[in-house]
Specification:
By secondary structure, the protein is an alpha/beta fold. The chain folds into three domains: 123 residues, Methylthiotransferase, N-terminal domain (Rossmann fold, 3-Layer(aba) Sandwich); 231 residues, Alpha-Beta Horseshoe (pyruvate-formate lyase- activating enzyme), CATH 3.80.30.20; 57 residues, Nucleic acid-binding proteins (OB fold (Dihydrolipoamide Acetyltransferase, E2P), Beta Barrel), CATH 2.40.50. The protein has 13 helices and 19 strands. Helix 7 runs parallel beside helix 8 and helix 8 runs parallel beside helix 9. The structure holds S-adenosylmethionine and FE3-S4 cluster. FE3-S4 cluster (F3S) binds next to helix 6.
């Protein structure tokens, strides 16, 4: 085996897991190719949070099987990520294209799986061991300015709609000094924006010292290593006043805070097992905004959760209207295997959920437009990601609040650079800007 191809589906956590997998593949002597059809080993790093995850995987496996019949490659196919954990040996038995299955808790065993495949065996390794192997130095991070560092793996919350606790196992926090060292190393290697990752990042507790997420942020901020620090995903249940105070005082922290609410009705929140009421969520928003007046909040909303009535839904709409989130990610409830909500009565039809989702977006869009228009004339620093469109002279990046900013008039173009810009225009989903003082409104 000499070459590998890797395909990543889903969240930031999977992006980082793919970099971990790549590091191990490279240490095993394999080099990367850009098409599965050219690879000796193709790895699919999958997501199963929503929709027909298994169907999508099977159809991709079918394509790879046909490619192999036609051209001999990919000679081996590995399934990783949440679908691997969820389906395990079942999928190995079902799909002849598959050579190995490796759950998210078993990434470190990739070399052993490759050896088994080379010896003509098909293997499935899932589950979670007592100790999580996390070889930070082996992560193939590439040269990107945006980088991720895991602080806590797994999730103990068991929201009744969510498959993550089953696919990513119990919570496990990494030692604080190890995280700080990794942040410093990543920044020294060119990482400008470092996002601390966890399913419930603010439930972090250092296993050695008991330091909490506020302490961790302060320690990371105190290094001064990263140009910007972000974190996802916070759970409303875990923010204490003390933590909020520390957040407000952390140097280098962006102004973006993702705070999934999921629903605005107490009855639905209770059935979701979210651990807070509507009132508590709104109180938290007020406390965060009072400590961090510049903060831009974003959220996740699920509509069509089993038993959600029109009145429940209207409470969600009203909450969205009153909080005025800078960004909102809306989802129609998707029944997931093993989750309690799968068996709840009152399943809402797809068309009803789709219609409610549309109404959420219709309520959110003008708010976003208004908030974005309010930023016109402001100076911000934007981390550039690349051309706004193919062949376009404008560049695209993100500001400290995670808003997408299109930048015009940038001549020293380079991906990963920070541009000082002035916001000149706005749509509901992005901002327009120009570089330098020429764009400043006349005094
Ligand atoms: N740990 C995070 C949290 O506390 O919100 C995020 C986990 S999940 C990967 C990301 C988002 O997907 C959730 O916030 C939720 O809105 C959505 N989600 C999870 N399960 C879902 C389901 N069964 N149907 C629809 N949306 C779902
Ligand atoms: Fe999922 Fe709830 Fe954890 S959304 S990842 S079970 S906090």
């Amino acid at each position: 085996m000499e070459t590998y191809f890797i395909e990543t589906w889903g969240c930031q956590m999977n992006v980082l897991d793919s970099q971990r997998l790549e590091g191990l593949l490279q240490r095993h002597g394999l080099s990367r190719v850009e098409r599965a059809e050219d690879a000796d080993v193709a790895v699919l790093n999958t997501c199963s949070v929503r929709e027909k995850a298994v169907g999508k995987v099977l159809s991709r496996l079918g394509e790879l099987h046909l490619a192999r019949l036609a051209g001999g490659k990919p000679a081996a196919v590995g399934l990783c990520g949440c679908v691997a954990e969820q389906e395990g040996a079942r999928l190995l038995a079902r799909s002849p294209a598959l050579s190995f299955v490796l759950g998210p808790g078993r990434i470190a065993q990739l070399p052993a799986a490759l050896d088994a495949v080379a010896a003509g065996r098909r293997v499935s390794v899932t589950g979670f061991g007592p100790v999580r192997d996390y070889e930070a130095h082996l992560i193939a991070r590439g040269s990107g300015a945006r980088q991720y560092v895991t602080v806590i793996e797994g999730c103990n919350q068991h929201c009744t709609f969510c498959v993550v606790p089953y696919t990513r196992g119990r919570e496990s926090s990494r030692p604080l000094p190890e995280i700080v060292r990794e942040v410093e190393a990543v920044a020294a290697a060119g990482g400008k924006e470092i996002t601390l990752l966890g399913q419930t990042v603010n439930a972090y507790r250092c296993p050695a010292s008991g330091a909490d997420f506020g302490d961790l942020l302060q320690a990371v901020g105190a290094t001064g290593a990263a140009w910007r620090i972000q974190f996802v995903t916070s759970h409303p249940k875990f923010f204490t006043d003390n933590m909020i105070e520390k957040l407000a005082r952390t140097p280098g922290l962006g102004t973006y805070l993702h705070l999934p609410v999921q629903a605005g009705s107490d009855a639905v929140l209770k059935r979701m097992h979210r651990g807070y009421t509507r009132e508590e969520y709104l109180g938290l928003v007020a406390r965060i905004r009072s400590a961090m007046p510049e903060v831009t909040l974003s959220t996740d909303v699920i509509v069509g959760f089993p038993g959600e009535t029109e009145a429940d839904f209207l409470e969600t709409l009203a909450l969205v209207g009153s909080v005025r989130f800078g960004q909102l990610y809306g989802f129609a409830y998707s029944p997931r295997p093993r989750t309690p909500a799968l068996h709840y009565p009152g399943q809402v039809s797809r068309s009803e959920a789709g219609e409610r989702l549309q109404r959420v977006f219709e309520a959110q869009s003008p708010v976003q437009l208004e908030l974005n228009q309010g930023l016109i004339g402001r100076s911000v620093e934007v981390l550039l990601d690349g051309p706004a469109k193919r062949g376009s002279e404008a560049w695209q990046g993100r500001g400290p609040d995670n808003r997408v900013v299109n930048v015009q008039g940038w001549s020293g173009i380079a991906c990963g650079q920070v541009a000082e810009v002035v916001i000149t225009g706005a749509t509901a989903h992005s901002l327009l800007s120009e570089v330098g003082p020429a764009a400043l409104p006349a005094a």
